Amino acid sequence: MKRISIIFLVLLISCSGKNKKSSSNIDSVDANISSDGWVSLFDGESFHGWHNYRKDSISEEWQVVDGAMHLKPDPDRIHGINNLITDKKYTNFILSIEWKISKKGNSGVFWGVFEDEKYPVPYQTGPEIQILDNLNHSDNSKKIHMTGALFGLVGVEKDRMNEFGEWNHFLITIDHRTNRGSVQLNGSEIISFPLQGDEWESLVKNSKFKEWKGFGKYPNGHIGLQDHASEVSFRNIKIKEI
Description:
This protein has 2 helices and 13 strands. The chain is an alpha+beta fold and 242 residues long. The chain folds into 2 domains: 1-32; 37-241, Exo-inulinase, domain 1 (Jelly Rolls), CATH 2.60.120.560. Strands 1, 3, 4, 6, 9, 10, 11 and 13 form an 8-stranded antiparallel beta sheet that branches. It has a 5-stranded antiparallel beta sheet with strand order 2-5-12-7-8, with no helix packed on it. Strand 3 (62-65) and strand 4 form a beta hairpin. The chain is globular and about 45 Å long. The relative contact order is 0.22.
């Protein structure tokens, strides 16, 4: 019995250490973000500064839970139409955002969203940085669909994601002056990509977006959080215009 107790204690300490490592990883990344020039996009208590795409309000599926924006889709309602976007538009910026996805979940972060009646959903104009449960989702076989990818366009080579249910951190840079965008996931840069010009047009031409007339055409646009019929949370959302 004593030996069993010792083994159980060792396992408990090991599991505790694993969780602590994941949490400290996120904390250390966030701590490296200087306060100079950074503006919070989420106060941890309300959806001030945000609205549902092409609506003036926030749907009931979105709630503030434990200091995070939390989407819990209603299975009896239409999915995919409760995307959140910022009230303000941005052009050149660095976005810092923490997120966690549910098992088999799918979501994403948009930029360059043009809000207009001719575009029913934000991803018709705004490119997306993918959020996916890389381990369990059925769409995990393509690099251009994995977490941190520029969805459908630029894939990731290494999986730097903490597993579903754990917090992860994106640092997304969009700079039209240098024609480059990039994504850091949990402190490691995983992709870099063009924002316009021949290289961008080549990516789009070889993707499902080639016939989408408004896709990636608006340098100045809203930032969005995707409703993809999955439970997902976002917190510590900050932006620095550059």
